[in-house]
Amino acid sequence: RGYSGGSKSEVTIGQCESSPGYKAGRLPPGRRHVMLGLYQVGALGVDVTTTVTTSSRQTCLPPGFAGSRIDYMDDRSEPGRWWSGALHAHTVHSDGAEAPMDVLRRVREAGLDFVTITDHNNTTHIEEVLRQRRNLSEPPLWIAGEEITTPGGHANAWGLWLGDWIDFRVRPHERGISELVEAAHRQRAVISINHPTGACAGCSWEHEIPEGVDALEVLKGPTGP
User: Which helix (DSSP H) or strand (DSSP E) does residue 177 occupy?
Assistant: First the structure.
């Protein structure tokens, strides 16, 4: 139902509202699993305690937007023109420091034409932007995406829609990496390998490079080429 990117110690999953990075909605009966991404553990190990509290009471407010695709399509095609923007940005829906609308404001103030929000393993920022984007005068072109954060490297999917999600649970050397790329293309997204030689744990690309990958990240902000 969601992913935190290592930034939260407490999350809420509700029928009407959830913590950023987690999908709201009714929980059907069944077994649940808590996934812990233990990327950096000391030699003595680590103790983890998971506490789950449930409640059946929540009052839902009517939705503040119509969830159709046309709500956030933006046609600014100008053949022959260069566009300047950010293709790899995070928000509080994973391990970013700012809300999606604040990211859009910063992009506009920086004079950029577009931004792609690519939170780790979720696309829940889409609903927040759809509800609030009309409050921003002259918003930049916004592209919804996901940073597919696998145990063997990260990839961005650009051009997702409300409800789209690419499953990240593929280990290095598994054939599933090709299926991951195919899943992104079925959802009409463009997929790019991120920081193939990243310094953080699990960031370097250890999978094969499957056929169909559309792009490769060659520069990542302050960390350089």
Answer: helix 176-186
The beta-strand segments (E) located in 93-140 are: 114-117
Q: How many CA atoms lie within 13 A of 180 on its CB side?
A: 33
CB contact burial 142-181 (16+ within 10 A = b; e otherwise):
bbbbbbbbbbbbbbbbbebbbebbbebebeeebebbbebb
Going by their DSSP bridges, the two strands 215-216 and 85-89 should be labelled as unpaired
Q: Please name the residue that has the structure tokens 């939705």.
A: 63
Tokens encoding 31: 């077994």
| Strand arrangement, sheet containing 190-193 | 85-89, 114-117, 141-150, 153-158, 190-193, 215-216
The predicted-structure confidence for 13-33, as pLDDT tens digits, reads as follows 988 889 999 998 888 889 988
The residues, ordered by sequence, that sit 6+ positions from 169 with a Cβ below 8 Å of its Cβ are 150
pTM for this model (two decimals) = 0.84
Residue type, 87: L
Tokens read off for 171: 């280990």
From the list 147, 115, 154, the residue with the least C-alpha distance to 21 is: 147
